[in-house]
Amino acid sequence: MKIGDFKMFKITVYSVREVEIPLFEKLNKDNFELNLVSEHLSIKNVAKAEGSDAVLVSGGDDTGKDVLEKIASYGIKLVYTRSVGVDRYDFAAANELGIKVANVPNYSPRSVAELAFILGMTLFRHVAPATYNTHMGDFRILPEYFANEIHDATVGIIGAGNIGTAEAKLYKALGAKTLAFQRHPDSSNDAVEFVDMDTLLKESDIVSIHVPYIPGKTDNLVGAPELAKMKSSAILVNTARGPVVDNEAVAQAVRDFKIGGYGTDVLLDEQHVMDKQFDTLDDVPNQIDKDLMKNYPNVIVTPHMGFFTVPAVTDMISTSFENFKSTIKTGKPIYPVER
């Protein structure tokens, strides 16, 4: 096979939205044969990958044991993801089946950072309850709308990696004091002041979480004990993963006015809600998610759309193609994931 011409290499790509198709076509500079599938990968549609050399998934796809076994039965040994998270992979099954996994560890950090910033500011300035009330015909300026200005506020970032630092820079540009907690602080990061977790929770007007979900390690990183340390007016933002906060404790804290509000782009059991439309909120299958969302407008939820920008999706597709190209040329992807 000639370098630069991979027409004989077929990749079945799942979870491709219509607006993403032009990007897949534009960025396919090595002429891979692409089989673009709009649905999320599941046991019901895994057969669409038969005859392919590789599969490319996203964060909402099923890469559990049953699905991986079917993929392996087609002779496919490459199941890569164009997202960062790999928590839905059954790595024991992948290893047993000889399936290689690769991911996209970095993409435009501004995509998630901007959404986290917007969620934080929307609640900080009480925009969510104000717009809800005006759309219900109530145009009074209520005492609850009385707000501080962000240049006089303190923002705490839990996890000052690329995304957390990008968000900190947005707040810092508006004059806010930016604190951060990181297990291994980067002394060269001048966008934040590193402090311990307790100090961050006690002093921050907005607390924004940017940590990976590692089962058994980052579950409920922010729970009832941490919420109790926050200001009663403080806003909590989570654009990381649903399980890194105790969602029941957050819902209770909002109901009891122990915190000012919660903005999130992530929920529990997202595989059961992502890209689905329910008739009513009562039809959402996870009771904890449902109880949390019933606190609107003091709880605002977006449908895991932080990544959904042109620069970020471009990065995700381009890096995925580079992973495949490297595998064909060298036998290894650029960003392998082994567990």
Automatic annotation (TrEMBL):
The record, for PROSITE patterns, names: D_2_HYDROXYACID_DH_3 (PS00671)
Q: Does the keyword Transmembrane helix apply?
A: no
Which keywords annotate this record? NAD, Oxidoreductase
Q: Which terms in the Gene Ontology molecular function aspect does this entry carry?
A: (S)-2-hydroxyglutarate dehydrogenase activity; D-lactate dehydrogenase (NAD+) activity; NAD binding
Q: Which Pfam families match?
A: 2-Hacid_dh, 2-Hacid_dh_C
**Protein name, as recorded:** D-lactate dehydrogenase
To which protein family does this belong? Belongs to the D-isomer specific 2-hydroxyacid dehydrogenase family.
The superkingdom listed in its UniProt entry is: Bacteria
Q: What does the record give as EC number?
A: 1.1.1.28, 1.1.99.2
Which Gene3D superfamilies did the record assign? NAD(P)-binding Rossmann-like Domain
- Which InterPro entries does the UniProt entry name for this protein? D-isomer_2_OHA_DH_cat_dom, D-isomer_DH_CS, D-isomer_DH_NAD-bd, D-LDH-like, NAD(P)-bd_dom_sf
Q: Which ranges carry the D-isomer specific 2-hydroxyacid dehydrogenase catalytic domain?
A: 13-337
- Keyword Metal-binding on entry: no
Domain D-isomer specific 2-hydroxyacid dehydrogenase NAD-binding: residue ranges: 121-306
Question: Which species does this protein come from?
Answer: Fructilactobacillus sanfranciscensis (strain TMW 1.1304)
